[in-house]
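Sanity check

After download, print the first record. It should look like this:
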Amino acid sequence: MATGFTVAVVGATGAAGQTTLRILEERKFPIRELRCFASPRSVGKTVTFAGEAVPIRPVAPDEFRGVEIAFCSAGSEQSRTYAPMIVRAGAIVVDKSNAFRMDPKVPLVVPEINPQAARTHEGVLACPNCTTIVTVMALKPLHDAARLRRVVATSYQAVSGAGVAGIEELRTQSLAWARGEAIVAKQFAHPIAFNLLPAGDIGADGYTSEETKLVNETRKILELPALPVAPTTVRVPVFTCHSIAVNAETEEKITAGRAREVFARFPGLKVWDEPERQRYPMPITVEGQDDCWVGRIREDRSHPQALSFWVVGDQLRKGAATNAVQIAELIVA
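Expected structure tokens:
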């Protein structure tokens, strides 16, 4: 860590923060000094980066003096407090929470899709919701090829999207079931082991917070403010990777064969579509990868200009940490 930038990771002990540290190391991001932050109960503990133990610091204005780039992996409430403070200390903030995503002054960036947006920041750049990122990675090449008219998206979201507590909930409940013990729900409203639940809090309009994010963020990233998007988000008993079943209607007809071609050419997107050999993207095979994988590509029998497909992405990596580090790479470039 002798040359490069002074980098801060806020929320370094959480699932997203730990993955951020791993991605920074894997991608050899130029770091001169790394400062890690977490909640008061973690202060004094350490996290490992590049084989070194890095102490956890308290979040305070003086601690960010000299920091050039900060990754915020805390919740929305914390980010609303921390991000302006960190910017005032002189750093550029890449925030992964929902706090600033729909702020018109804050760019919402997926580097493969809208890298130009990163040039307009005023100190804070937002990383989209993990489900949104996985979805738009496949929508963008379709839009470029045939212009999107309407999107129906149903997500199947892993428990790690709810953080380390979600992971522990599924693990604990699965073990309890195997031992014949009662399954107790703590993190989610109902048991998640061997069950399906709405992903996000259900609002007065009947839509969950995750569904609203998917609609609004997709429109902002693709610069299609009037795009009709019909969302359904579901929490599933899978540890890692979000999967989305998408039906996309386009202005021009695009065949399944043509779609495979445009998907395969898009950076960060891989095609695995051999259903006759039982080969298609699955969470268990996509976990740990930065690319999103698309398969089960087929023309909609009910509409002449619609296409259905299945896209899977590791939401801790491309859905959060990798995307955030890619944003930082745009900044330093």
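If your output differs, re-run the checksum step. Summary of this record's structure: The mean pLDDT is 95.
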